[in-house]
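Quick check before the chapter quiz. The format below is the same one you will see on the exam, so make sure you can read both the input and the output lines.
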Amino acid sequence: MIRRMNRFLFALLYISGIVRLFRFAHRNTLTILLYHGVAERRNRGIYNYRGKFIEPAHFARQMSYFSRHYAILELDKAIGMMRAGTLPKYPLAITFDDGYRNFYTHAFPILKKMRIPATMFIAADFVSERKPLWVDRLEYAIGNQAGGRAEKIARDKKIRDELKKLPDDEKEKLLQEIERVSSSIFSDFDGDRVVYAPLSKSEILEMKGASIKFGAHTKSHPILSKLSPARLGDEVRGSKEALKDICGGISDVFAYPNGQPGDWNEATESAVSNAGFSFALTTVEGVNGKDAHSFRLKRMTMDGTGAGAAFAAVAAGVRLFLSKIKHLYDAA
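Here is the expected output.
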């Protein structure tokens, strides 16, 4: 989530022309954007406090801006052109992770109207078996606990970070205990849980015929580096097979859950390669040149960017630059 002070700073940098200079500096490298969903604002519990769902009007403004200032390409095509050294100036690809239904209801109409291609990476069990993602189960449970909003947000952040470090079976046990204490069992998408609902097969097939491509994002969205070799292979290869059953041909690219350093390793990369994928996406910020590592492609995460100048600054690489400066300052 982008804080108010950072939004003000990004606005100043945009007005000053700094964002345009960063965009120019990256004109010959591939920028891949990462979204998670597009949904209306709801003031309930701590739903979407991280801003992973962009409001529809904000998303439309972002797509309009990117259409004017970048050459938007379908992801697989863009990576192929990157490898061949034939990218146009200011190349950009748009991706979504997980498979939320709000992509169909809010993002797809905007993308279709503007004729913008995008690739959705789906957690197979979320869609085919309608199993809620563990991060949403946690958010929902914490949101139903006692305490003020700020207190619950801090609690959710702390527990989420702790759960990411655990093996999958331990994470599930603790999550079930949190749900029990909160009296918030998340077993379906009825009532107030509908905001977390996944895509349906019919929606996927409809979008596949209209410039939307689909890719694999594991079966159950685990941290892959925490899995046994057998489970790792099942999550990667199984997600590919499940997605093919849903929609036929899929992207040649795989997307790591969470996607930060330590969430994947050489064994993970081998499993992805052995499953027949040629490339993989991380959530490490940055752009991609001709010699980028095939299984460590970088993306700019757009969560929380909203309608202000922040989204343009993030896409241009300004946030990444500022974070590097801050890291150097803190290390001094």
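If your answer matched, good. The beta strands are 31-35, 37-38, 53-54, 71-72, 91-98, 118-122, 212-216, 253-255, 279-281, 300-301.
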